[in-house]
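Progress narrative, Year 2. Work on Ubiquitin 3 binding protein But2 C-terminal domain-containing protein from Lentithecium fluviatile CBS 122367 advanced from sequence curation to structure prediction during this period.
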Amino acid sequence: MVLGILTAIAACPAIIGTTEAVRQGQRQNAREKHRGLKTNLSVNCSRASSGGREIDGCAVVLSDDKLYIAIPSDEYPDGRPEDHPFAGYFLPYPDQNWGRLGEGMVSTISDDPPQLSWIYVDQDTCEVKYGDRVASEPHIIGPWDVTKMDRRVTLTGWEGFMAVQYGPGEWALYFDVDDNGLKGVVGDEMLRVEVELVRREMRQARTGPATEAEATPRTRSGP
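Result:
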């Protein structure tokens, strides 16, 4: 009896260690699983200003090689037909290894045919853009990651995203590379709002026959 108790006591540290290792592995798998899930993006920001109230909670879309913030309007209550909702995930960028700092990030740019593009920040204009490897490689391609608790998107280890207003109802996404409010990058007269990028699980649509919609291309304005 005594021997059995002693054996059980001796085995406890090994059992506890094994259990903790399993739990850590499960937590690690859960953390990594979300990185490969295709998600939408939206922006959160202070609603203290009129600009903040206009864009807070709005979705991020892709159009004309840039990322924009979709503002619902009377003309386009469901968004402009040429805009493609961000639908992306993290992916290792070719020939880059940032380790624990993060990875590259991609998004679909069309559903039919399905196409992916890299998300990057133009090192000269600070605009958040999308393109193939040739277009993205000279610029800031990563590392992209998320905050530990809320999983807000980060780039190069911090959240420096800003929305810049081009015109009524038209906002583009920027990254404040030099952390100076985009001074010298956009005109002083252009409205700017600090934003957070939030990943949101994509809505699960009912499967059925594919539909085809046609839209007249529309060119965006910009600085």
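The CA atoms of residues 43 and 197 lie 5 Å apart. Helices lie at 2-35, 50-55, 133-136.
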